[in-house]
Amino acid sequence: MGFRTILTIIGALLATLGVTMLIPAMIDALAGNDDWRVFFACSLITTLFGAGLWASSSGHVEPLSLRQAFLLTTLVWIVLTLFSALPFMWSDLHASFTDAVFESISGFTTTGSTVLVGLDNMPPGILMWRAILQWLGGLGIVVMSIAVLPMLSVGGMQMFKAEAFETPDKILPRAANIAGGMVAIYSILTLVCALLYWMSGMSLFDAVAHSMTTLATGGYSTKDASLGAYESHAIEYIAVVFMILGATPFALFLAATAGQVSRLWKDSQLRAFLGLIALGTALAFWMQTSANLHHGEEAFRHAIFSVVSVMTGTGFGNADYNAWGPAPVALFFILTFLGGCTGSTSCGIKVFRFQVLAKDLAQHVSRVLMPSRVYIKRFNGMPLTDDVSRSVQAFVFLYIVCFLIEAVLLGLAGLDPVTALSGAATTISNVGPGLGPIIGPAGNFAPLSDFVKWVMSVSMLVGRLEVLVVLVLLSPRFWRG
Description:
Helices cover 67% and strands 1% of the residues. The chain is mostly helical. It is globular. It contains 24 helices and 2 strands. The longest helix has 27 residues, at 386-412. The model is unreliable at 152-173 (pLDDT under 50). Strands 1-2 form a two-stranded antiparallel ribbon.
């Protein structure tokens, strides 16, 4: 398996995580909160442990094999989650191990489901740590989409690899440059979003924290009422724009900076994504006005904000759509599964996979009607190979199976059908809020039992790592080599 390379990479990432813990430590120290000692201690422990792993493997790094990539991808998320949970347990929150891991994994996977209450009066260090976790998680999934998932041929990601790297006109000459460019774009967009939030009435602290969770499409907030607490139309529209940007393929941003701006509007996935947002917004607007709930600009703002928030997996709230009636609830349940684009920070099945399934269906129907016709599937003008179709079909099938298994487990744990189904959907799709009075937009995951929280934690990890990456580790053949 070559564990030295795996330990070296995990050690380096752990040391980096430990250093980032100094940021909330400094914030708490400036605010006069004693939790700065907790963050400093956690930083010391995490950094030393990571440095120890790196030193024990002598900094040995070789090109990853396929088996190493599968194992490393899963281990990184698990190990970083466990260490990032330490501040939640040792701070004044005194969170249980279960709650700390749930909050941590919800942050790293950019799910946004939370077990914490009283955010408005919480120490600033903890609030910033939650935002940092989501920002790092969003950044991690983008880099993973570039460096790891294409190699694993998981759920159609090899098509994204073909677009980003294997065409004659590569965006940048090396994958390392591409990853570096994406980090730069991600950081710049975060700063711009923070500036706009600050200019629109947020405090500087809230603006920075919310910008990090907006670009990561994570949804952690510094307020119990989320962005609805600010009662600002400008803030809500800014959030809509940057949630959409976070769910857009970052390779397209790189292409734009390299002079290929036309790829932004020529990309069929992005056009389909924006079209689905427009359709969902129109339906939500009509449902509100027909039920005489909201009208005009208010109905449009509630509609587009909620649709974008759920579809991108951000999970911010400005209204309780549970109170709009059964039809909107059904709409948002469907939107939970859609997700954004591949190669972005968003979640869910992803628009690209639905496009592939639609092309597969069209090909099948065409062959039934005209068996002699040659039908070539294309995506953005490129041939769509059968291995891409097979991987997408396998991914969607396993995704639905995992969702059903989780829903059954949650139902057996005593949750009502709406909470069980929406809880399974929102955690495996990394959306955040579910449906119903307990985990809906106005609710919280704190009342759930420890068993339910562990089931949801595993589901968040499985969904974030594209299902197959985790499930392949359960195969005995994987460990036999």
